[in-house]
Amino acid sequence: MDRVRPRLRAFLEAQEEERLAPYATLSRHATRRHPLSTPDPEEDYRTHFARDRDRILHARAFRRLKHKTQVYVPHTADHPRTRLTHTLEVAQLSRTIARALGLNEDLAEAIALGHDLGHTPFGHSGEKVLARILRGEEPTCPLPPALVAEVGTFKHNYHSLRVVDLLEQRYPTPGLNLTDQVREGILKHTSWTPDLPFPLPNREGLRWDRPCHLEGQVVALADEIAQQTHDLEDGLANEAVNLPAVERLGLIQRAIAVLGATYAKEPSAFRRAAGLQRTLIHLLVTDTVRHSAGQLTHLAQRHRLRSREDWQAFLADEGPLAVGLSPQLEPLFAELRGFIYQFIINHQEVNLQDHRAHLVVTGLFRAYYLNPLTLPAYVLRRFAELSGRPYLRDVPLSETRQEVQQHYLPNPLFVRVLVDHLAGMSDRFALAEYESLYHPRAGSW
Predict the structure, then answer these.
(1) First-last CA distance in the chain
(2) Computed over its alpha carbons, how large is the radius of gyration of the chain?
(3) CB within 8 A of 49, min separation 6: which ones?
(4) 436, 442, 443, 445: CA torsion to nearest 10
(5) Angle, alpha carbons 407-166-172 (nearest 5°)
(6) 3-class DSSP state for residue 69?
(7) Alpha-carbon span 72 to 201, nearest angstrom
């Protein structure tokens, strides 16, 4: 070997052509809303999707995930999943499945790392509360009907797009300027519809009329697999369920059969639960890979897809659903999901957390909405910049009430700025804000 040469983007893109399956999404086909500043060709050693992954990892919204609830409140113990550790597990599963199917791992990983950036504090509980407020259905935070008709709703996957397209401010253009392929995967990792009344800053490049590309389908299923398996492990550790009850589930019985005598002979309940966790993931991932490979084979034979060009034209036209669990495992997975919802998600401790989340989110919204001066300066400045109104703290005190009544309370833009602020909070920050507003003590002022 005479000289080591850096593997630059052109080389990496050519390598993708050789090693990825013909139905994979190639980095050279990536599109963005805004052009990138042209990097030095001798220093351009990332594909477009690898660049997106890095942009997400360095975003402030990504760092805040470490203090956001998955199911159990993260600050009460060391080991329950947080929204961040959930995201990392989804990324790991996504890369494994994508690699086994010959798909683009960088694209799958970028989507996985960004899919929950729009989650509220307190997990899905916070999301539901914000949506109920914006629908005008929350009696503690009544919004005028005319405002409700204009302001839109809240859904975390849409808000994740709002984060990456608008709210992150690290570059000359708004947001993170991610590729359309990553943006589409973030939106479509859970249910979506083109007519949801949500104010996306950019609706282009999302292929609203068809399912997500295959890498996005991988992330959507990896999200489900990670969620159900780690919620089960956390529920067992928290004693919301017991091992004998779990062992009666059909999917768990399959895992026990795979483990064989080692499971029966294991004296430690903790190690038995750990064995079930990893075997359960193995069963679900293996089934996904095998069934999806069969689906793709069937599509190739049925539509006579023999080349990369054939596949790309077919995927652009049809957009088929091809990644999923087999008909044999799907009902067993549904049984597991129902069990987790009934005994873990609906457990008293989780419901107590949900109740507290309702109190905190509604309390913060009510305080901020009725008295915008309780908002941080950066939120008020953002509204001033977007609305063209003067910064509220520069308004003479004698005119502040009138300014709020006329230009804040009836303005859907103000409500959306307020929701952006609330949705971005970590659990810890939201709790501290609520405490300072509703339970002030001298030491905390």
Answers:
(1) 66
(2) 24
(3) 27, 30, 104, 106, 107, 109, 110, 179, 181, 182
(4) 50
(5) 110
(6) strand
(7) 32
Residue type at 289 in one-letter notation: V
CA distance 179 to 215: 14
Nearest alpha-carbon partner for 382 in 429, 345, 417: 417
pLDDT tens sequence across 370-422: 999 999 999 999 999 999 999 999 999 999 999 999 999 999 999 999 999 99
pLDDT at 418: 97
Structure tokens at 39: 């990097």
User: In the Cβ-directed half-sphere of 71, how many Cα atoms lie within 13 Å?
Assistant: 28
Cross-strand partners of 150 = none
Backbone φ, ψ for residue 144 (5° rounding): -60, 140
State how far the Cα of 287 lies from the Cα of 294, in Å rounded to an integer: 11
Cβ atoms 87, 65 nearer than 8 A: yes
Q: Reduced to 3 states, what is the DSSP secondary structure of residue 440? A: coil
Distance CA 183, CA 376 (A): 30
Question: What's 159-187 look like in SS3?
Answer: HHHHHHHHHCECCCCCECCCEHHHHHHHH
Asked if 116 and 124 count as a contact pair (C-beta separation under 8 A), the reply is no
Tell me the sheet residues that pair with 175.
Answer: 169
Interatomic CA distance for residues 314 and 309, integer angstroms: 9
Angle at which helix 269-303 crosses helix 308-317, to 10 degrees, equals 100
> Under 8 Å CB-to-CB from 63, ≥6 apart: which residues?
none
SS3 94: helix
H-assigned helices in 20-47: none
Of 98, 102, 122, 126, the residue nearest 110 (C-alpha): 98
DSSP notation for 386-410: HH-PPPGGGS-HHHHHHHHHHHTTT
Count of all residues that appear for the chain in the document: 445
Rounded Cα gap, residues 354 and 73, in angstroms: 10
Place of tokens 């849409």: 158
CB 123 within 8 A of CB 247: no
What is the spatial distance between Cα 437 and Cα 368, in angstroms, rounded to a whole number? 10
- Please report, as a single letter, which amino acid is at residue 260: G
Q: Which residues have C-beta within 8 Å of that of residue 311, sequence separation ≥ 6?
A: 22, 23, 300, 305
Tell me: pLDDT of 301 over 80. yes
Interval 236-272: pLDDT, tens: 877 778 899 999 999 999 999 999 999 989 999 889 9
Give residue 311's identity as a one-letter amino acid code.
W
Q: Within 13 Å, how many C-alpha atoms sit on residue 445's CB side?
A: 5
- Residue 120 to residue 123: CA distance in whole angstroms: 6
